[in-house]
């Protein structure tokens, strides 16, 4: 029974790193935000639970949050680029094309949230998607 965490991150990194959206190349980062980037994707919180619901072997219920971030100076900007990046993330990560190395993918559901922050120096627009993966 292999811990699937690194294989899940590898799938999302390989699938999403350096996608081009609206002429911008979007990079993927593991937990830590890059410096001097105004649009990027973070792989943040990750968790897993054993699920013994099957006689065919242990299944894992795994979660990872993919965080789409766009930054603008001052009070400028909007959520449009974040929306477009999120749409591309959704297109590239459907149940039909999720492959988790060394594991058998069973299914995936997704939960979506928005988080926008305006400070005196920046506008930050974030789109979060929690992938709930069932694998064995």
List the helices and strands and how they pair.
Layout lengths: L4 H12 L2 E3 L2 E7 L8 E13 L7 E15 L6 H13 L12 E14 L3 E14 L1
Parallel strand pairs: 2-3
Antiparallel strand pairs: 1-2, 3-4, 4-6, 5-6
Question: Can you characterise this structure?
Answer:
The mean pLDDT is 93. This protein is 18% helix and 49% strand. It starts with a helix and ends with a strand. The chain contains two helices and six strands. It is an alpha+beta fold and 136 residues long. A hairpin with a 3-residue loop joins strand 5 and strand 6. Strands 1-2-3-4-6-5 form a six-stranded mixed sheet.
Average pLDDT rating: 93
Strand adjacency order, main sheet? 1-2-3-4-6-5
- Compute the number of helices: 2
Strand content: over 45%
Largest sheet: 6 strands, mixed
Range of helix content: 10-25%
Tell me, what's the shape?
A: elongated
Q: What string, H for helix and E for strand, traces the elements in order?
A: HEEEEHEE
Count the strands? 6
Strand-pairing-aware structural class:
alpha+beta
Roughly how many Å apart are the termini? 8 Å
**Whole-angstrom Rg:** 16 Å
Uncertain segments: none
Brief description of this entry?
This protein is 18% helix and 49% strand. The chain has 136 residues and is an alpha+beta fold. A six-stranded mixed β-sheet has the order 1-2-3-4-6-5.
Q: Any descriptors?
A:
alpha+beta; 136 residues; 6 strands; 6-stranded mixed β-sheet; 2 helices
